[in-house]
Amino acid sequence: MQFSVIFEAQLADPTVDREHQLIHDCVEQAVLAEEMGFDRVWAVEHHSLKWYAHMSAPEVFLTWVAARTRTIRVGHGVVCMPFRFNHPARVAERAAMLDLLSGGRLDLGAGRGGTVQETSLCGVDRDRTTQEVEEALRIVGKAWERDELEHHGELLDIGPHPILPRPAQAPHPPLFLACSRTETLTQAAQLGVGALVMGFAGPESIAGMRRAYDDAIAARTPDRFVSTVVNDHFSVLCPTIVLDDREAARRVGLRGQRFFAQSIAHWYGGAGLPDEAVVEGADEAAELRTAAEQVVARLSEHDIPVRPAATAVFHADHAYGTADDAIAYVERLRAAGADEVMCLIQMGTVPQEACLETLRQWGEKVIPHFRPRGREAA
Q1: Peptide bond before residue 313 is cis, with ω within 30 degrees of 0
Q2: 276-289 pLDDT per residue, tens
Q3: Cα gap 292→304, rounded to integer Å
Q4: Per-residue pLDDT tens for 54-69?
Q5: For residue 116, is the peptide bond before it cis, meaning its omega torsion is within 30 degrees of 0?
């Protein structure tokens, strides 16, 4: 069982000063995560998604974190792989440089970055994103098979060129794909890459996703693999706030999740701006339910399909509470088939003190429960 932290760099009430402080706060959390025994930090890549994600240059953020740490792995969760976001050869070059400088600590995930807001910024053809992501993974997977990369695909034609430098991990860092639907889980399995799974719907839903991933692994053939190295790692998102005061943790966590859910609904589905007001003493579970109803109503009003993911992010049953509550929830994730728990702590309204305390509680109480002899022994 592995444990990681994922950063969206979310920001309520965004100002320049608050944004600058936020990025430094994320670095502070990442450094503490290593001290607390976490295996990995992930950083997303999004563009122009104010409120939801101010993490537009994860390769720079992860390089800075790698320079401040010694052992924790650094992960792209994910690189936006459509070509107008990032040419695959440039992805390979940057990944190799970071892997080399970090001493072989990089993991590389791929995703679509498919919001209208993002694709319109960079002129990405939204109808080609799935195809471009797969071809980009193939290019990265073969970049160092020989002294020179040569690729003749359906979308890109690259004559022989050396890709420099070579990564520390041979033949390349482990590859992953962002997965939110059965179709992408099947694709990840067929391509031979790990799955990065949104876990808002809860352990029962995750168990079904794990079955879909395993079924696709059992049925696949090697002809679609993007690399000579297969990665069948199943990583699951886990929203969490852990404090000594259970009710305070639930209140802070659910409020942060509501901000997350409303901001993602704004950019992915055309819902209203995220509500930034924090009402002391509010019933946050009830507020979360009300927010979900408002999002569904707004989507329906604009004839936008209400997909399961649109409401799953409002599901309130997560690792909020004391360390014992978190342990019990992780036990359910482990039973559902998670190889890795990706802790989502930094949500838009969660104060830095609560983020740092949550990391300490996980490091001192939650992770040791699953690793009695410590991280090195595991």
Answers
A1: no
A2: 655 666 788 888 88
A3: 15
A4: 999 999 999 999 999 9
A5: no
